[in-house]
Each structure stands twice: as structure tokens, then as C-alpha cells.
Amino acid sequence: MRNQDTLNILEVASTIQGEGKYNTYPVILVRFAGCNLRCSWCDTKYSWSFNGTASLPAKHLTAEELVANVVSAGYDSEYNIVLITGGEPMLWQYNRVFFEALNLLKDYGYLIHVETNGTIKAFKEMDELVNFYAVSPKQTEYKNSYKKEVLDSYRGVEHIWKFVVGGKEDAYNVVEFVKKFGLEYDDIYLMPEGVTVESLERSRSFITSEEGKEILKSLNYRMSERLQIEVGII
Ligand code: SF4
Fold it and tell me: pLDDT by residue (tens digit) across 161-184?
């Protein structure tokens, strides 16, 4: 359940970024509850419901309460990035309190990084508040859910496109997707699919195999780690 005065938050914790361009940077992670997709390989299924789960129920926080939680999790030059993630945090744009919270975080001097699946158009006001987007369009199951105008709404600030690849079908889909939406000249990261060290290794082996490299060769991509799975951070 959502209401306009509070945000449904599952976790606020200091950790390190485990993926993409800012991999290994210290961050304060804020995990919003609720997602509009249901990816079969999702490694945070507990974040799908707006209510959280029985073992991790969502807390209903005002903007001030959320910022107080962030500050107590870490407030110094080392932890100056707040990583807004989910679930799908962009669903919360429709609550005015989301903007209040981001404005307060900016006033404290935090940099704001947002992880999104890229299916929801970013409001123009977000460009003033967000320093970095990691946009992760989902392939195979949801590849036909994307629109150019929605993807383009993330290009107003520094951003990367982060794709999960588990095998041949994903690889072909990513190449087609990048071409279809004109993402060739942006930063592209490929992440191995998997929720265990073993399954990640299988996916990584495909991406780095001769077959994988041949399919993906038109992309100017970098490989992304998934340290949250590999070393067990959140
Ligand atoms: S979009 Fe992200 S959080 Fe939502 S189901 Fe897919 S992987 Fe999980």
C-alpha cells in the first residue's frame, strides 16, 4: 500500500556499489519497495511488493525520516553517494514526498545515483536532482515494453545502460535493442545473469566465449561485476 505522505522503504544501509560504472564506490543504499516488472532471474524478489515481506516489511517514512536514516547510516566524505534502488524506485516519482526527500538529500550535499529498469519516463525535474542513472532495460521477457521517449528521458544526466546477459538469446536481444533505440554512443555495461556464484560464472563464460564475443562485437561494452552476489554485500 502507498500513500502520498510517506515512502515505502525496505533498507537503508552503508555498503559498496557492486555493479556498473561506480563499482566498489562506498554508497548509502536506499531500497524502495515495489516493482512494476517480475523478472524471472530477479535477485531482489523481496522488493516486488509495496508492503515488503513478512521478514522484511516496508517502513513508511516521511522525507525527513528517510533523510535522518541516511545520515545515521553514513555522513562524511567517504559516504557521499546515495544509491536509490528497488524494486523500481521511479514508481515513487508520483509521490510529492519523493521529491522532498531528494531535495533534502541534495541540501545535505549527497550525490544521488538512481538504478531503474527504464520502463517509466523520468520527470524533467529529476534532471536537477539526480547525478547519475544506471538504466537496466530487461531483455527477453520485457524487451517489447520499451519506448524511445521513455529511454531518452534518462539521457539528461550522466547515465549508463546496463544489460543482463545469460546466453545467446539475451546477447542477440541486447544488440538489437541498442541499435533500435540508438544507444550505441552511450556507456554500455553487460552483467552476467545469475543469483549464485556458479550461475554468474556460467553466464560470464558465455559472454567471454568466442560465440558470445562474435554476437556482441558491435557493442562498445564493458563487463560489469555483481559484487552483491559474489561477495555477499547487499
Ligand atoms: S526490474 Fe529489477 S527489481 Fe524489478 S523484477 Fe526486474 S530485476 Fe527485479
Answer: 999 999 999 999 999 999 999 998
3-state secondary structure of 220: coil
How would residue 74 be classed by pLDDT, with cut points 50, 70 and 90?
confident
Average pLDDT over residues 206-226: 92
Let me know: does 166 contact 174? Beta carbons within 8 Å. no
- Domain extents for the chain? 7-166
Q: Does residue 42's CB lie within 6 angstroms of at least one atom of ligand 1?
A: yes
228 has a pLDDT exceeding 90: no
Is 44's C-beta closer than 6 angstroms to any atom of ligand 1? yes
Nearest CA to ligand 1 atom 6: 39
Residue among 42, 36, 134 at smallest CA distance from 84: 134
Is residue 138 lining ligand 1, measured as CB closer than 6 Å?
yes
Q: How far apart are CA 114 and CA 89, in angstroms?
A: 8
The residue to mutate among 8, 10, 32, 44, having the most atoms of ligand 1 within 8 angstroms of its beta carbon, is: 44
CATH number belonging to the domain at 7-166, selected among 3.40.50.1580, 3.20.20.70, 3.30.1300.20, 1.20.140.10: 3.20.20.70
